[in-house]
Design brief:
Elements (H helix, E strand, L loop, with lengths): L36 H12 L3 E2 H4 L5 H6 L4 E4 L3 E2 L9 E2 L9 H12 L3 E6 L10 H14 L4 E5 L7 H8 L5 E3 L9 H4 L5 H14 L4 E8 L5 H13 L4 E6 L16 H14 L4 E4 L9 H8 L1 H7 L5
Parallel strand pairs: 2-5, 3-4, 5-6, 6-7, 7-8, 8-9, 9-10
Antiparallel strand pairs: 1-2
Helix pairs in contact: 4-5, 5-6, 6-8, 9-10
């Protein structure tokens, strides 16, 4: 598929099936619009440093809570993605060349915010053989230089399963290496057409083999047409790949151009999945609730679990 100019327009092709009727959003999925002095300060800081956050680009429902608490997830390598995932509101098309000063600006913003934990993610950059992996390594190292003691989580693309690209990131030793599988294998090509389940497997399993002490993490969205049993099978796969931390949340349709919501999961179903992940599969940490997103409570996870952070900064830093 040729890469086109940046756009948010997506046409979802459905082969002669009846789409589910729009459902009323349950009360527990309603959130307040972001407001407050801290939120405004962070928004102005991001614009002043020409930075992007996935909180804004992906329309995260927890934006108000997280920014109000002085935390954010930084989106690197621009705001245009080379893939066209049918659930995501980030623009897609032909991105600009990489900005090699961006890691420095992100690190300075993290220092200005006085963060104890930073989450770094990016768009896909499939036009590059390394997928932009050197940018991740550069920002990890720069943050450690200008703001020591701040733990770092990277939420990376799959780099098409390339071990060499992943090794560039792992050599910088983030506390958490995160790659979201997003959905069950049966729906993979519908939800994320240019992605591959085997690439996700390679990314997460290779991360653990390259550095067993780095925490690995992945996430699943619910409500795209999967069955409860398929979710449990995918969780089992993730655990077999060595994943330590699991996040599970309800899919929310960004616009009518995106994949429709098949159904809303109940609080009891979230509780069942949480019990299965924590008690049966023995994940080290599980976040499983309707509004959970990949970076939700990430600072708590790293403080409780990360041996890398204790090695870098001592037990007091944990």
């Amino acid at each position: 598929m040729p890469i086109t100019e940046p756009t948010r327009d997506r046409l979802i092709q459905v082969d002669a099936v009846e789409l589910p009727r729009p459902q009323r959003r349950p009360d527990w999925l309603k959130v307040r619009a972001p407001t407050g002095e801290t939120y405004e300060q962070l928004r102005h800081l991001m614009r002043a440093k020409t930075l992007h956050t996935v909180c804004e680009e992906a329309l995260c429902p927890n934006l108000g809570e997280c920014w109000g608490a002085g935390t954010a997830t930084f989106l690197m390598m621009g705001d245009v993605c080379t893939r066209t995932c049918a659930f995501c509101d980030i623009k897609h098309g032909r991105p600009l060349p990489l900005d090699w000063d961006e890691p420095n600006r992100v690190a300075e913003a993290i220092r200005a915010m006085n963060l104890k934990h930073a989450v770094i993610t990016s768009v896909n950059r499939d036009e590059r053989a390394d997928g932009g992996a050197p940018i991740f390594a550069a920002v990890i190292r720069r943050v450690r230089e200008v703001h020591p003691g701040c733990s770092i989580e990277v939420l990376i693309p799959d780099f098409k399963g390339k071990r060499a690209a992943l090794q560039i990131v792992m050599a910088a030793r983030p506390e958490i290496l995160n790659h979201n599988v997003e959905t069950v294998p049966r729906l993979f090509k519908t939800v994320q057409p240019q992605d591959n389940y085997e690439w996700a497997k390679a990314t997460l399993s290779n991360a653990k083999s390259l550095d067993p002490e780095v925490l690995t993490k992945s996430g699943i969205m619910l409500g795209l047409g999967e069955t409860l049993e398929e979710v449990k099978e995918t969780m089992t796969d993730l655990r077999s790949w060595g994943v330590d931390i699991l996040t599970v949340g309800q899919y929310l349709q960004p616009s009518k151009r995106h994949l429709p919501i098949d159904r809303y999961y109940t609080l009891d179903e979230f509780a069942e999945l949480r019990r299965f992940a924590a008690d049966d599969l023995k994940f080290s940490w599980v976040e499983c609730a309707p509004l959970v997103r990949s970076s939700y409570h990430a600072d708590r996870q790293v403080r409780a679990l990360s041996r890398v952070h204790r090695q870098l900064y001592g037990d007091a830093a944990a």
